Each structure stands twice: as structure tokens, then as C-alpha cells.
From TrEMBL:
Stored PROSITE patterns: GLYCOSYL_HYDROL_F1_2 (PS00653)
Gene this protein is translated from: LOC111350791
GO function term, MF aspect, one: beta-glucosidase activity
Quaternary structure and interacting proteins, as annotated: Homodimer.
Key word Transcription regulation present: no
Keywords: Glycoprotein, Glycosidase, Hydrolase, Signal
Name of this protein: Myrosinase 1-like isoform X1
Length: 496
């Protein structure tokens, strides 16, 4: 990667009040959405209920503005406009997810909903017609309710259910989709879903549910990856990976270094080690620490279920690149005697006897869990490279939570600062980052925050029946980065 230094050094242009940093040739830019957050059409054309439909209808009080994703951005009808926006931004790729309960209303392949296949065919063909690449997430938090009723991610059979669903989508879309993500952010899926009352199924099971989920997600991903690898890759040459949420944890003081490392292994490593490490399985230090906790609690088996040797082999190596989503950072320190952990959804930090702290100079974004620390993305990438080797890294989500407004200079600054750190990771640390994805193309249903929190490059008017989309300042800024394939860093910093 030495050439990257040479390219950068020879092409840094000092323009009167700014510096222009190019991205490596071939680096790709995208933007992302997820089905439940944008589609709407919650019960149209044969779609069945998923866990979010059920939850927001039964528990409006758990959503900040008591809203639902019933209509959301109405992308079920407005998808052409979404693709126009992708074109306006000149995206290289557009990441979106498939709704399991739209494609398989029973949750199983005994009935494939043709209307859903047609909808996604139209979207995929529309993306390709614009010269953009589709990046498809197979599952992004919206489990069919029928499967939740059978235990959802805590039931070991879900490994096969997910494999069956993946087979269906590969068979229908695999001729045109060459980039796939199996499951979005297992850490959020497992922690938030089994540890927080504001995410469905709101079945609180910090000792068992979370850890069963962790194991089943890894096996489900691996089975789907192997189906693609065996049946589709030889013909279509596509690539498939899991997308992992990487929050950067650092020690509050040097004595907490081991704890911070263990926390990285817990949140990032628990969903990476089995796939990317040479030995496979859970991160050994984490598995040991959690087994000790289980014993202390009187369980006769580890709460984090061990992998069999066969399972280790099944999961190991099931990647084509490392996909990561990154937003925020935290500091770690050891809990004092009797001190209670309060931050959700990271409940099982308690199992590591840790307390999560915020650094005073990290600005808080417009939602409770989000502190801005651009260096976290670089440090996270370097950590991943140290752990798992010189892999190809694709950033599949990054973006800022704000309140309303078109002149979103805070989001502009966020993108500039985080992308600068990505470039430093590439140029100074030789991390092979090949893609960056803005979360999100447009304002959408931000889970338990409803419509109160905005992440969009485009503003969406949720009181307009047509859900009009309007570009924000950040959309113009991002389009400019893509057009120039470079980042302009002002020498004088912009204050928020
Ligand atoms: C999820 C998105 C979510 C975003 C901002 C990510 O963890 O994949 O669905 O909207 O964070 O909260």
C-alpha cells in the first residue's frame, strides 16, 4: 500500500484556505436505507406482519412520538424518486434491505409473494439502469412476527429458517445483485432486542436470550454465505459478508486498558472472531470471562453457548470483505462496588463489570446514545486490521443524528471529519478501506425515536402524503465529494 502514500503526498493541493485529499482510485461511495425504516406498505400486496409492525401497533408509548413505520417514506410507492436521489448524488452503490415478511409472508418458503418479488425486481433493475450498483442487506431487524412467535433469534431452528430465506432471495435476485450483506448489526439485533423495552420483542433476557441470539446469528450468516459460495458464486461472482457494528471503546485511564479491550471483543469481536480469525470460534478472552460470570451466577453451562468444532468450521472464513457500521465511541472504566450500569442497549457490559463513560469533549448528537468522535472510526479500523489481518474493509453505515432543518452544517462537518479519519486510516495506517456508505439517503423511521431524529442527506416531509424529499446541504456536500473523488479540508475549522 506504499503507493497510496505516494499518490496522496504528490496530489495534496494546498488551496488558499483548504487542503484537498483524494480518495484512492476505485474507492466507492454509497448511501443506505432499510426496509422497515423507509418502505411503508406494511400490509400491502400480501406482506405479513413483522416484529416492528406488531410492536409499534401494540406499544405506541415505547416510541418517542408514538409513530409507526406503516407508511414511513412510502418507498413502496416512491422508490423511483429514491433512485433519482441516488443518481443526483452520483452514488456508486445504493444499499437497501429486503423485507422477509414481504417476500415470505409465513416466514417460510412455502409461499413466495410474487408482488414482493416484482417490487424488488423493479428496484434492482431501476438501480442498474442508472449505472449504480445494488448492495442488498438480506435482513435488517424486521423479523416476521410468525418466527418471533416461535422464539425468533433465540430458537436454534432460525439458522435453517434464515438459510431458506436467503436461498429464495439469492435465487430471485442473484443474477443481478453482486454485493450482499446477510444480517445487519448482530450486536444491536441481539442486545437491543433482548435487553431493551423500546425494541421488539421487548423480551428481556440479558442472561440467556442475548447470548443464544449471538450464536444463532453467526450460524445463520454462515449457512447463507455457504449457500451463495457453493451455488451462485461460481456463476455470478458476487460477494457476501455480515455487517458488524463497531463502536470504539477506549480506556478512561491506563488501568482500564484490559477492560476496554474486552469490551471491544464483546461488541465487535463476538461477531467477527468466528468469521475472520484464523482459529475461529468466540474470542478466547471473552469466552473465558463470560464463562466465569456464568459460573458465579450459578449456571451449570456458559451463558454464551460454546461452538462445536463442526460449527467453528462452518463459520470460519465466511466472508468476502469486512463490512462495518460505525457511529460513536465510549470510554470504559471498572464499576465501583455496587454501582449499577444504566446505559442501554449495551446491557451485558455489566457482565464484564464495566461502566461506560462519555468523554466530556465529545459532542452529543440528537439522540441519547450518540457522541461524536471522528477519531473513533480510524481507531476502530486499525483495531480490526490488527485483530483480523489485512482484509478489505467496506464501511456500510456512518452518519449523524440531527434535529430538523435543511442547512445541516453539523452533518456536513461530521461527514468531513469522519471521512478525513477514514483517509488517515488508508494513507497513514495502510488499512484497505474500499467503500464508504452514508447513513442515510433520506430521513426515515429511526426505530424507537420514530421521526424525531433525522439522519437523512435528504429531508422527508412526513406530513405530506407524497412524502416530498428535499436535498439538505449535506446532500450537496456529499455529491461534491463523490464528483471530485476527494475531500476538501478547510485549514480553519468550522465551529458548530
Ligand atoms: C442501524 C440503522 C439505524 C442507524 C442509526 C444502525 O445501527 O443499522 O437501522 O437507523 O444505526 O441509529
Amino acid at each position: 500500500m506504499i503507493w497510496k502514500h505516494a499518490v496522496v503526498l504528490s496530489t495534496i493541493l494546498a488551496v488558499s484556505s483548504s487542503t484537498i485529499l483524494p480518495f484512492p482510485p476505485g474507492f466507492k461511495f454509497g448511501a443506505a436505507t432499510a426496509a422497515y425504516q423507509v418502505e411503508g406498505g406494511w400490509n400491502l400486496d400480501g406482506k405479513s406482519e413483522n416484529i416492528w409492525d406488531r410492536f409499534v401497533h401494540e406499544h405506541p408509548e415505547r416510541i418517542d412520538d408514538r409513530s409507526t413505520g406503516d407508511v414511513a417514506c412510502d418507498s413502496y410507492h416512491n422508490w423511483r424518486r429514491d433512485l433519482e436521489m441516488a443518481e443526483e448524488l452520483r452514488l456508486d452503490f445504493y444499499r437497501f434491505s429486503l423485507s422477509w415478511s414481504r417476500i415470505l409472508p409465513s416466514g417460510f418458503p412455502n409461499h413466495i409473494n410474487e408482488a414482493a418479488i416484482e417490487y424488488y425486481n423493479n428496484v434492482i433493475d431501476g438501480i442498474l439502469e442508472k449505472g449504480i450498483e445494488p448492495l442488498v442487506t438480506i435482513h435488517h431487524f424486521d423479523l416476521p412476527q410468525s418466527l418471533q412467535d416461535l422464539g425468533g433469534w433465540a430458537n436454534p431452528l432460525i439458522v435453517d429458517w434464515f438459510e431458506d430465506y436467503a436461498k429464495v432471495v439469492f435465487a430471485h435476485f442473484g443474477d443481478r445483485v453482486k454485493l450482499w450483506l446477510t444480517i445487519n448489526e448482530p450486536v444491536i439485533l441481539c442486545e437491543a432486542f433482548f435487553n431493551a423495552e423500546v425494541f421488539p420483542p421487548a423480551f428481556i433476557s440479558p442472561d440467556l436470550g442475548v447470548y443464544l441470539c449471538s450464536k444463532h446469528v453467526m450460524l445463520a450468516h454462515a449457512k447463507a454465505w455457504r449457500v451463495y459460495d457453493k451455488l451462485l458464486k461460481p456463476k455470478y461472482h458476487g460477494r457476501v459478508s455480515l455487517t458488524t457494528h463497531i463502536t470504539w471503546f477506549e480506556p478512561l485511564a491506563p488501568e482500564y486498558e484490559e477492560l476496554a479491550e474486552l469490551t471491544m471483543l464483546n461488541f465487535g469481536g463476538r461477531y467477527s472472531h468466528a468469521i475472520y480469525s484464523k482459529i475461529g470460534g468466540w474470542p478466547p478472552a471473552l469466552e473465558k470471562a463470560l464463562a466465569e460470570v456464568s459460573l458465579k451466577r450459578g449456571y451449570s453451562r456458559p451463558q454464551l453457548p460454546p461452538f462445536t468444532q463442526e460449527e467453528i468450521e462452518l463459520v470460519r472464513g465466511t466472508y468476502d470483505f469486512f463490512a462495518l457500521n460505525h457511529y460513536t465511541s465510549r470510554l470504559m472504566r471498572t464499576a465501583k462496588e455496587g454501582e449499577k450500569f444504566t446505559e442501554w442497549p449495551l446491557g451485558d457490559v455489566e457482565d464484564l463489570n464495566g461502566i461506560i463513560v462519555r468523554k466530556a469533549d465529545w459532542a452529543q448528537a440528537a439522540t441519547s446514545w450518540f457522541y461524536v468522535n471522528p477519531e473513533g472510526i480510524r481507531k476502530g479500523l486499525v483495531w480490526l486490521k490488527q485483530q483480523y489481518g489485512d482484509l478489505e474493509f467496506m464501511i456500510t453505515e456512518n452518519g449523524l443524528a440531527t434535529k430538523a432543518g435543511l442547512d445541516d452544517q453539523d452533518r456536513v462537518q461530521y461527514y468531513r471529519d469522519y471521512l478525513e479519519q477514514v483517509l488517515l486510516a488508508i494513507n497513514e495506517d495502510d488499512v484497505n478501506v474500499t467503500a464508504y456508505t452514508a447513513w442515510t439517503l433520506m430521513d426515515n423511521y429511526e426505530w424507537n425515536n420514530g421521526y424525531t431524529v433525522k439522519f437523512g442527506l435528504y429531508e422527508v416531509n412526513f406530513t405530506d402524503p407524497g412524502r416530498k424529499r428535499t436535498p439538505r446541504a449535506s446532500a450537496h456536500y456529499y455529491a461534491n465529494i463523490i464528483r471530485t473523488h476527494s475531500l476538501e479540508i478547510p485549514t480553519t475549522s468550522i465551529q458548530l
